[in-house]
Structure formats: structure tokens, C-alpha cells
Amino acid sequence: MTQEAISITKATTKKEKPASDQLVFGRTFTDHMFILDYEEEKGWFDPRIVPYQPISLDPATMVLHYGQTVFEGMKAYLTDQGDVNLFRPEKNMERLNRSNERMCIPSIDEEFALEAIKQLVKVDKDWIPSAPGTSLYIRPFIISTQPYLGVAPSKRYKFMVILSPVGAYYKEGINPIKIAVENEFVRAVKGGTGEAKTAGNYASSLKAQKTVAEKGYAQVLWLDGLEKKYVEEVGSMNVFFKIDGEIVTPELNGSILEGVTRNSVLQLLKYWNIPVSQRKISIEEVYQAYKAGKLEEAFGSGTAAVISPIGQLAWKDETVTINNGKTGEIAKRLYDTLTGIQYGVKEDPFNWISKLD
Amino acid sequence: MTQEAISITKATTKKEKPASDQLVFGRTFTDHMFILDYEEEKGWFDPRIVPYQPISLDPATMVLHYGQTVFEGMKAYLTDQGDVNLFRPEKNMERLNRSNERMCIPSIDEEFALEAIKQLVKVDKDWIPSAPGTSLYIRPFIISTQPYLGVAPSKRYKFMVILSPVGAYYKEGINPIKIAVENEFVRAVKGGTGEAKTAGNYASSLKAQKTVAEKGYAQVLWLDGLEKKYVEEVGSMNVFFKIDGEIVTPELNGSILEGVTRNSVLQLLKYWNIPVSQRKISIEEVYQAYKAGKLEEAFGSGTAAVISPIGQLAWKDETVTINNGKTGEIAKRLYDTLTGIQYGVKEDPFNWISKLD
């Protein structure tokens, strides 16, 4: 594993930064990026921060044909004191290596990768937007770079990190979204790659997402691939239901992505002594709870939106409105607490924040 | 859809061609490639044959993160008369568009794409190897090229074609391979992307493939993702069993790739009046047939190996040897007929061959 010092080549010209209210997720990138190469004989080598620029790939590069690639998503938050906060970044690095293992990509030194991310954010610190709810999205990713058309793990890779200033996910606080339960397409199945943060899971979700978007739904709620019975995820978020006072979320089963926000929500709920369980939950049970007047809240959790209340759920021909289409009490409390911790305005009881020096 | 003429820029220096007996699948590429661009506002535009060269991609290019990409695989064969034969290329173009549909990629004009492939092969005609069993592998593929981290269909794409001279898959005729039945990992499930020729299916297969390779098996036999009971595919080939005089292959079910060679095998068997059925077949049934002395042959079919006899099958703790580990009569006849048609030495009763002018 590399212990080389990270070389830094500064950009000679700086790009213009977009206004805080003009930020669109994932469209604008900062002045620099991080690259680390891998070759089978050498391991990971040549860590460097360089000006943000296109990369040159042979048309036979494996990632373009066989999708051997993994990624992560995290954010840097600017506090009122001018500090830069990362939220549980070590969890993302752990998950990156779990994804690597599933996708036959060599593991990466988690501490070194995190150090590289911190140095990169420091170099582009003036890109972190300061308006409420804005942040700097961090995208670490690994691509297989061997030019070879055989179906086999690549012998070469690039680990890269790029940064994108992002706006508040919701313009005014948090707003409930409309979700359609997906009955035809499947995101993942046990034994597949659902647990890994890898390209194919996202490519396979596009068709379902496009179909429901045309009907006015924001996201898809995925059911299990075996029986299309049990709830798995919402879009690219984990999902929670409050039923008769208890918060229920699908247990990790090999096809659900283990979200860092999901894990944080579970810890907060326990800390608050709110009953919570991770278990199989069928969409039938959710609908029955609704009919019995016991479906009190539903929400998704993820890095992008933090907490996303579900105001309406459509399954087959039946549409139900949850909590009168309003943000629930628990969802609001989780959102306020998580964002409060992230922006350094609330106590951080679990030491989730890593500050940049 | 573009009707533009294809511009041709010839390479000023030519690469050295590898010797016919040194050809390794997918490692060497010819002097030229084909590119066609897509932008939402313009459709497909600027078809061009240019010197084989790296492409420049923004690090945020969608294909690197979300794997929205499809590909095809086909071959050009040089006959003793100096003709260049393509084998049912229109089937590959049809499948490319079926894959596009599943992956939310705009469809491509099949005739135009085929014309582009033919022109490219013509430009690099002297790269088609002439030794027995060798050919020029053709890899058409489409990648999503918008630099954007939102999970949505890309608004820009590149359709590209690259060529690679390939050796005989088997050095001396066809040799039976050892196959392990996969019990843990899943390739695809109905509602997923198994029917599409897309990157994620191949990325997800790497781990299982690597695991069985370490135990000395050439390929994995995939079972269905729901019950791990029914046979789906072998590695990246379709699979056939001869049981008590009848050839059985798994029916297309939404998770199996529809192979062009599979389709050709079915047509040939019907033409020869050999009983054949496409239906669900469990691995249990295959083993029972073996025990009853009725499992007469097993083989895979695909563009790379054409026909690949299965000499040994391992499922859980039970290993069975099929046809004494030798190539079966039907497998041999199919191999000889298909390669005979491809190289122009056998009659082509179905007009499968497209000749380059």
C-alpha cells in the first residue's frame, strides 16, 4: 500500500464559481482532482492532486465495456466558524473497500484515501459554498483502466476524487415526495451486486426511474427481486416507516446498500429511546398499517437529501397519502439533528465529525 | 437518424501486426476505429473513421460512475477466396437496439451502423488474420458521455467500433471444458438487465468467475436468481444439453441473453430434424439425467468459442463427467457447420453470411 507523499500541481487559471442559488447537483466541478494509479506489479502508486482535467482512455478500456468500477458519495460542510466538516468519512472508505471486494478491485488504504480527500478539499476549500444547506459533494471512484476485452478483473485501475459544489436539496427545508412502488423492474437480488456501490446498480435503475418520473413520481420504491413483496430501498436511499410508534427499516440482506445516513439514523433513534427495528417488511404490511391508521411516517435517508419524507405512495392502483402529505415529526427531528451536526451547530454525541485541520 | 456520409481519416503510421499464432483475444487493436456522436438536440451525428486513438473523457463522465453503456460482439472471417464474411450481423444490430431500449440509450439506425462497421472492416481489411480459426473480432459499443453526477439517462453518447484480430479459441479443434455450477452469486434476475448486453452484467460475474477459476474450472454455470434451481447460462455463453436424444436449452425468460449463436444452433437443429426444446430445465434434472445414463452431451454457444463442449460439471459436492469428457457428436457437427458457413467452405442454407463488397 502506498505511503508516498501526495504531490500537488496547482491550476494556473481558476474557474468561475457559480452563485450559491445556482448550484445544481453534480454539474460543476472544482479546480483540482486527485488521482492514484494501480498496476498489478506495483500496487497503488503516484498519488497526486492536479488541475481538474479530462482523462485519456483507450477505447478498449475495461470500465467502458464491463463496468468494473465502484464509487462513494460524501460531503464537506462549511460551518459559521469557517471550519470544514466531513461527516463520518471513514464509513465511506470502509464501504469503498467492501464494494472493491465484491467487484474484484484491489483494496485501498482507507486512511491514506481519506487523507488524500482531505488534502484535495483543502486545496479547493474556497469552492465550499457557504449559503444555508449548501455543501461540497465529494465523489471518490475507482475505474478499471486496462485496455483489454477479456471478461476478467482488470490489472490496472485509477482511484480518483472529484468535487462539486451542491445546493440545498430542498429549497425550503424538507419537502415530502411522491414515490411509486416498482412492480416490474428489479434493482438487485441477493448474490448480485446490490450491496456494492457500483455502476451497474445505477444503470439498471434508469428505466424504472424514467417510467415513474413520466407519471409524476420523484422516485421508485424497490421491492425484493425474488418475490416482489418486501421493501428494499427508495431510489438510491434507504427507507424507514413509522408504524404504530415504532420505526421499521428493511434489514440488510445482501441486496440493500448499507447507507451511512441509514446507520446514523438508527444510532440517533436508539439514543433518543425511540423503538426501532431492522427486519423484513412487506409492502402489504405498509399498506395494511395505512388502512389501520397506523402508518404515521415514511422517509428515505441518504447523503444527498439527508432525510426525504415520503408524502405519497402508489402501489398498483392504490395511492396512499402519509401524514397528510406533511413532513413527520421524526423525519424533521432527524433532518434537523443530522444537518445540525454536519454544519457544526448541534452537539455531536457520537463524534461523527472529522474536521479538516 | 443520421444519413451523413462517413468521413475517413487514414492513420499515417501503421502498427505492426501480431503473428497469427500470437493472437490473444481482445489485446491488440487495429489502425482505425469508428465514432458517431449523440447529443439530445442533434441526434446521432458526425460519423467518422479515424486512426485508433485514446478518447478524452471528463472525470465526471456518466459511464464511469453509473455504467450506462451497451456493447456487441461479432466477427469478420477471411475466406480462402479472399472474401470477408460477417455472420448474421443484422442480429447483433437488432440486439444492440434492444439493449439500448433497456438501458435508456437512444436507438441507432441499424442499417447505418452495419454500413459503418463494414466500411471500418474494409479500411482495416489487411488486419483480418488468415490462419485457420482466426478472425477479426468486432466490438461495437455505446457509452454515455455527459459529465454529470445525477442518476438519470445521459443526454450525450458515443457509438464506437473497434477491431481486434483474434486467434482460434481452441488450438486444436474444440476441447471440452470444466464448468462449476454457481450456488452463491447471481448473474441476473427477471426485471433486471440480464437480457441486455450491458457492462453491469459482466462486472457482477467477475467474483464468481474468479472463485471457480481458482479451483480449476473454466466457467460458471449460472442458475436462476430466484430459486437457484433452473439453468440460465454458462459464463457468457448460452447452454444446451442433449438428454435422451433431445436437445434442451433454457427458454428466454428475461434474464438470459439471447445469443445469435444460440438462435443459429436452434435453426440448424430443426433443419437437421433433431428434436429440440426451449424450456425451463433445472440443474437437478440435468443430474438425474446423468444418473439415468441419459445425459449424452452438454455444450455452450457464443461468438467467441462458437461451440464449447462441457466435459465436466461440478454442483455442490458432486462432479459428473459428460460423454467421457469428450466432444459430443452434435457439438462437433454444430461447430463444423457453423465455422464452415462462417469461413465460406460450407453451404449457407439460411443466408446467414453478409459479404463485404
Could you walk me through the main structural features you see in this protein, from its secondary elements to its overall organization?
Two copies of one chain form a homodimer. With 357 residues, chain A is of the alpha+beta class. The first copy, chain A, folds into two domains: 7-166, D-amino Acid Aminotransferase, Chain A, domain 1; 177-342, D-amino Acid Aminotransferase, Chain A, domain 2 (Alpha-Beta Barrel). Chain A is built from eight helices and 19 strands. In chain A, strands 1, 2, 3, 5, 6, 7, 8, 9 and 19 form a nine-stranded mixed sheet that branches. In chain A, strands 10, 11, 12, 13, 14, 15, 16, 17 and 18 form a nine-stranded mixed sheet that branches. In chain A, helix 2 crosses helix 3 (110-123). The first copy, chain A, is globular. The model of chain A has no long low-confidence stretch (mean pLDDT 95). Chains A, B: Its cofactor is pyridoxal 5'-phosphate. Chains A, B: Keywords: Amino-acid biosynthesis, Aminotransferase, Branched-chain amino acid biosynthesis, Pyridoxal phosphate, Transferase. Chains A, B: GO terms for molecular function: branched-chain-amino-acid transaminase activity. Chains A, B: It comes from Paraliobacillus quinghaiensis. Chains A, B: This is Branched-chain-amino-acid aminotransferase.
Set out the fold topology:
The structure is a homodimer of 357-residue chains.
Chain A: E1 7-8, E2 32-39, E3 43-51, E4 55-57, H1 62-66, E5 69-71, E6 74-78, E7 84-87, H2 89-102, H3 110-123, E8 135-144, E9 156-166, E10 177-181, H4 199-203, H5 206-213, E11 219-223, E12 231-234, E13 238-243, E14 246-249, H6 260-271, E15 276-278, H7 283-291, E16 295-302, E17 306-315, E18 318-321, H8 329-342, E19 353-355
Parallel strand pairs in A: 1-3, 10-11, 10-17, 14-15
Antiparallel strand pairs in A: 2-3, 2-9, 5-8, 6-7, 6-8, 7-19, 8-9, 11-12, 13-14, 13-16, 16-17, 17-18
Helix pairs in contact in A: 2-3
